[in-house]
Amino acid sequence: MARIVLLGAPGAGKGTQAALLKEKYNLPHISTGDIFRANIREGTPLGVKVKAIIDKGELVPDELTVALVKDRLAMPDCEKGYILDGFPRTIAQAEALESFSSVDMAINIAVDDEAVIRRIAGRRMCKCGETYHTSTYGADECAKCGSKLYQRDDDREEVVRERLRVYDRQTKPLIEFYAKRGVLHTIDGNKGVEATFRLVSEVIDGRH
Ligand code: AP5
């Protein structure tokens, strides 16, 4: 059983690592950001409600986000564990999570501010869920499905600045929250994707 929370600033590489962990450990990858973006794309009532909030770089209200994650964790594929990416993001969310699940490890991917800005500025997305970076992938189409890549609306510079402010104010305190519970592991996320993945895997395998 591995119930994992990935912590880290916007652009730290949570989604990238979660996708690799999902394959290696056969655990569901639950990204609240991906769930919201899928709802926005499909024009669902939830998507309509959250679009303006996300486009401004602010947080979706806790009640909405908690209810969504609670339902998702009740699904059978989460019985053997899960990888939470982008949740919890506030102390209130973390406390709510404790009322319906216990976290085995919170892995904090620590990345320097300049790297975070560089990573977000060069990030390109595909509607199939693949993520690329312009420094390592030069094509305009997805290597997996051939669809045209695009930049996230909330990856515009002024929105990124607000997301980083929100992270400092509302999400960073979770590092101490999980340290107090004895489940925090901080790894250096400034290295490449593979090197970071080795460090994250060492934590999960109990070698860190
Ligand atoms: P969300 O989608 O969760 O965004 P985020 O936390 O800001 O994280 P990102 O997706 O920007 O970054 P990441 O750490 O996953 O980095 P990635 O792997 O893509 O949330 C979006 C919005 O939804 C929020 O602002 C909020 O409004 C709302 N929301 C979501 N959850 C919520 C919640 N719980 N409560 C309230 N509101 C919520 O990597 C970034 C780039 O770097 C990529 O191009 C990648 O290829 C590259 N890269 C990754 N790792 C490396 C590496 N090691 N070396 C070099 N390049 C790398």
Automatic annotation (TrEMBL):
Q: Name one GO biological process term.
A: AMP salvage
Task: List every stretch annotated NMP.
Answer: 31-60
Q: Which reaction does it catalyse?
A: AMP + ATP = 2 ADP
What positions does the entry give for AMP binding? Answer: T32, R37, E58, L59, V60, G86, F87, P88, R89, Q93, R152, R163
Residues recorded as binding ATP, renumbered to this chain, are G11, A12, G13, K14, G15, T16, R123, T131, Y132, K191
Q: What class of enzyme is it?
A: transferase
Specify the domain of life of the species encoding this protein. Answer: Bacteria
* Database matches in CDD domains: ADK
Record remark: domains: Consists of three domains, a large central CORE domain and two small peripheral domains, NMPbind and LID, which undergo movements during catalysis. The LID domain closes over the site of phosphoryl transfer upon ATP binding. Assembling and dissambling the active center during each catalytic cycle provides an effective means to prevent ATP hydrolysis. Some bacteria have evolved a zinc-coordinating structure that stabilizes the LID domain.
Cross-referenced NCBIfam families, in alphabetical order?
adk, PRK00279.1-2, PRK00279.1-3, PRK14527.1
**Protein family according to the UniProt entry:** Belongs to the adenylate kinase family.
Q: How does it assemble?
A: Monomer.
Q: What is this protein called?
A: Adenylate kinase
State which gene encodes it.
adk
